[in-house]
Amino acid sequence: MKVIKTNSDHPDFKKLSTLFDEYLVDIDGDEREFFAHYNNVQLDHVLVVYYEERAVGCGAFKKYEEDTAEIKRMFVLPEARGKGIANMILTEIQSWAIEQGFAHFILETSPKLHHAIALYTKMGYQFIPNYGQYIGVENSVCMKK
Predict the structure, then answer these.
(1) pLDDT per residue as tens, the chain (145 positions)
(2) Alpha-carbon distance 127 to 58, whole Å?
(3) Are 47 and 92 in contact (CB under 8 A)?
(4) Of 119, 99, 98, 96, nearest to 107 (Cα)?
(5) Which residue from 100, 98, 38 is spatially nearest to 73, judged by alpha carbons?
(6) Where do the domains of the chain lie?
(7) Which of 19, 30, 49, 78 could share a disulfide with 57, CB 3.0–4.6 Å?
(8) Structurally, what CATH architecture does the domain formed by 2-104 represent?
(9) What whole-number distance in Å separates Cα of residue 66 and Cα of residue 11?
(10) Cα dihedral sign for 42, 48, 132, 114?
(11) DSSP codes joined into one string, the chain
(12) Nearest to 38 by CA among 87, 71, 9
């Protein structure tokens, strides 16, 4: 596997992000536009993972508060799952964020993404009340580490 650090302008990140949005259509339903507004932002800290020369996963982070980074756009192609890629992405993102001075991490995900929640829990994240734009959104689960 190969991992590159880039930003949200990278063509492979854009492609994976579009596939992620399509994947979320069935999950977010009518709320898709609400979430797209917060997901389609410029990100300066993006990882793209390549497996056998193909972009198969991505993740990003952005500043939320002075010492807190928000994890964004975690996605692995369905056919590439089960290889530890999501775990590697999250580990690499956290390390990169720590290098940038962040000590805490928050994220939002769908309560329907059971595998994602299991990964975050395994990696030490705990459920918190929904923050920011996710307050009052029933189709959101927020976590912090």
Answers:
(1) 999 999 999 999 999 998 888 887 776 565 555 555 455 678 999 999 999 999 999 999 999 999 999 999 999 999 999 999 999 999 999 999 999 999 999 999 999 999 999 999 999 999 999 999 899 988 889 999 9
(2) 23
(3) yes
(4) 119
(5) 38
(6) 2-104
(7) 49
(8) 3-Layer(aba) Sandwich (3.40)
(9) 29
(10) positive
(11) -EEEEE-TT-HHHHHHHHHHHHHHHHHHGGGHHHHHHHHSS--SEEEEEEETTEEEEEEEEEEEETTEEEEEEEEE-GGGTTSSHHHHHHHHHHHHHHHTT--EEEEEE-TT-HHHHHHHHHTT-EEE---GGGTT-TT-EEEE-
(12) 71
In the numeric block, the tokens 């009340």 are attached to: 129
> Measured in Å, how far apart are the chain's first and last C-alpha atoms?
26
pTM: 0.89
For 22-28, the CB contacts below 8 A with 24+ separation are 23/75, 23/78, 24/110, 27/110, 27/112, 27/113, 27/139, 28/110, 28/139
